[in-house]
Amino acid sequence: MNMDFHTHGKLAKYLPFSTEYTDWLLNEAKSAGLDAICLTEHFNTQQFEKLYRYIAARGSRQGDAYVFNGLKVFPGMETDIAEGGHVLSIGPMDAILELNRRLQPYKTKGCFLPAEKLMALFAEYPVLTGAGHPYREEGHIPELPSDILKQFDFLDMNGKDIALDRRRTEQMTKALGERIHRPVVAGSDTHQAVQYGCIRTCFEKDIDTFGELKQETDAGRYTIAVHPDAAFKVKTAGLLKRALKEIHALGGDYVSVLLRQSGESPLVLAAKERAS
Description:
Order of helices and strands: EHEHEEEEHHEHEHHEEHEHHH
CATH superfamily: Metal-dependent hydrolases
Number of strands: 11
Number of helices: 11
Largest sheet: 11 strands, mixed
CATH class: Alpha Beta
Structural class: alpha/beta
Helix content: 40-55%
Shape: globular
Number of domains: 1
CATH architecture: Alpha-Beta Barrel
Radius of gyration: 18 Å
């Protein structure tokens, strides 16, 4: 089973939720060879609950996942910490939604919870927690006290960082995993479908529940695969994301641009919309 541990269901935090855009993302994830994703949307994104209610309503339930055209979607969330850095949490839909509501007072910069308090909150729920892109600039997760680091269930080998500097990202993330005795898994960190498949976690068996996911991850029954064109995929996704955000800023409908039926690529269409 090919899985992506770190994905997003919206183009950007400040943009409104779009069912058409999210459907497009999920369809493209399957087309990119993924069997499952963890939907780890930013905890302070606009319309967080609306996005997850849509997933729950439209997906076919299979264990802890919601299935869309053969793609399993496991609920999750990405949360900022006061020290600088992001914590991933994945778990049952009700737990993710309740956690998001409880984090309402801490959704603006300057109000983020310290890692110790956030991890204590997560410990009240049946969720798995991960250190998101631990060596990204301005993040300080590796500097956290060892007793906090050891509360993580996994570390995120992040596609964006792999694209920027694969050797450094692999060496440092694996070294941290060895230091705290925690598994390292892969996530693309995509907001835009071109980035799907840049990196993935390949499990030996099919997984439907978070219990199975933890069991297989802890046992190391998986490999991490990096796409040979990972850097190109991430760069292209970034260009398209910026173009679509600019279309929105100028009052255009970026979703219709993206999904317009045409022989031209979305990137070309976005560029044309910007120039018009």
